[in-house]
Amino acid sequence: MDKFIKHTGSAVPLRRSNVDTDQIIPAVYLKRVTRSGFEDGLFAAWRNDPEFVLNNPAYKAATILVAGVDFGTGSSREHAVWALQNYGFKVVISSRFADIFRGNSLKGGLLTVIIAQPDVEAIWFAIEADPTTKVTVDLESRTVSYRDVVLPFAIDDYTRWRLMEGLDDIGLTIKNSGSIDAFEKSRAAYKPATLPIRG
Amino acid sequence: MSKTLAEKIWAEHVVRAAAGEPDLLYIDLHLIHEVTSPQAFDGLRLAGRSVRRPDLTIATEDHNVPTQNIDKPIADPVSKLQVDTLRANCAEFGVRIHSLGDKDQGVVHVVGPQLGLTQPGMTIVCGDSHTSTHGAFGALAFGIGTSEVEHVLATQTLPLARPKTMAINVEGSLKPGVTSKDIILAIIAKIGTGGGQGYVIEYRGSAIRNLSMESRMTVCNMSIEAGARAGLIAPDQTTFDYIAGKPHAPEDFQAAVAYWKTLFTDSDAKFDVEVNLNADELEPFVTWGTNPAQGAALNSTVPNPADIEDEEARGAAERALVYMGLEAGMPLKKIAIDTVFLGSCTNGRIEDLRAAAEVVKGKTIASTLRMLVVPGSARVRLEAEDEGLDKVFIDAGAEWRNAGCSMCLGMNPDQLAVGERSASTSNRNFEGRQGKGGRTHLVSPLVAAATALRGTLSSPADL
Q1: Are the C-beta atoms of B196 and B303 separated by less than 8 Å?
Q2: Which stretches make up the Aconitase A/isopropylmalate dehydratase small subunit swivel domain (chain A) (predicted)?
Q3: What is the CATH number of the domain that holds A79?
């Protein structure tokens, strides 16, 4: 995973709430067995509409998505994160994310930043007035900034450290495999197992 | 210290806790399907890792499999590739799999409980958000992404931040014709799609205790639609009786029951939030919009967005009515339906099929619609056929299909056409969920059956 320390780019306003993962990438696009190529399916239904904001050439180079409240609800499909990343997004900003989507994004290195709804709206106004407005997301200082505005955001120390180091969770957990071995020795005998097959 | 049920299960599964880090939680059961696992197995292969506990892992094919002609090769080459990839991965890594044609193939959340693999006090995960279904047994069960699937395959653990706890107390008794589906739709309408975000919900109260296991699964299944990753119900005699005799029920059943009886929220434990709902007042409930919180009693009307105070919710309602092709103020019972879908991990179990069959028995569905009946698993299908339910549905004019997720998410050929309107016993009414441009109303199996007969959204009381 690439390290994430700081990113500066232009941003696209997505003025919709409750953007579920079926909208981010419809199920018919989930049939690949790789992690790449999902950009075709990103917001597939909405991209048929010429008025949809991602079809506006002014936002073509955007790498930051600024979305309405409750972004990423619904299905657990990590393909939603991959579709956003494959398309070129590095950061999504919203006032609230669904739990599974946020977990997936932070595991995969797509930074999801939570700021208050009035601050989201202020960014919307700024990037609608001038789509070339540069937005900087700095994980080190935990701030979003554009023009002369600086907005702090919260992220736990552990996740921040992991993203800044570009570390994947599995490697970190395997360092503690001694604890897993010890735990397994204490598991109750009546806990079910899938093997051997019964019935 | 007194604990809630969720806190007890959590504490019993902590492998490692360190200040400033998420807890490392042990996973008792990992369920796998074809859509969210290929990239995880690929990750293992690239890193030269194995599956740590194949004996705590089980796979089935559900999301994109066809429900017709299952004895023939899968026609869609991309679906076929995904299913073939799952079979090859399971063979390579030694994972048990129930493939198309096997009696234990079916929707992953129907398969776990019917095999007796879902038991109280367990931690259960799957790369599917409706894993919350298994919470009905008093297990901590939640959906995960593909990176986490890989993590569990490699280590049988997950690093997780401790969730907050929410109690939803449903006291009273349900009127005839009101089901657990109506309970959960009413809860979601009350707390919203983000209301449970960051929480594990415990459903409590007399109305919950009086539900059968299968009805409890319906409630827990849709916890995610309220934003909660997990929802659970304390196990009781109903739970123990359901597990007894299942293929993977504990051999030392008494020892297991003795432990299961410790799984309840201590009387002086505190939840972070409590929500109350009166079961006496509930009516059959349906959705009118494009998220599961946009629902109302079937006896009411399509709401007028202008009456909604919150600006965000008002905008969402306006957009939903345009997408759904509905007018504010229209009685919900006047809405004409093109397709009735009975099935899914929410309502595709034997009890759901029995309830719907009871309504349609000896009658004929409206000539203006089609009805798909898709059992949640091959075992449910066989059980229904033993009881003659297949004949009841076929005689009424419905289509009797094989098991799978089917039209719940329209990954296989079972899809709505543009503008087509469904009454669906599934869990999501998102734009295009059941097919591009399709319009979904979420309903209970009873409402689905009555709607199939009348052609418009209806409850059995309207017949």
Answers
A1: no
A2: 1-117
A3: 3.20.19.10
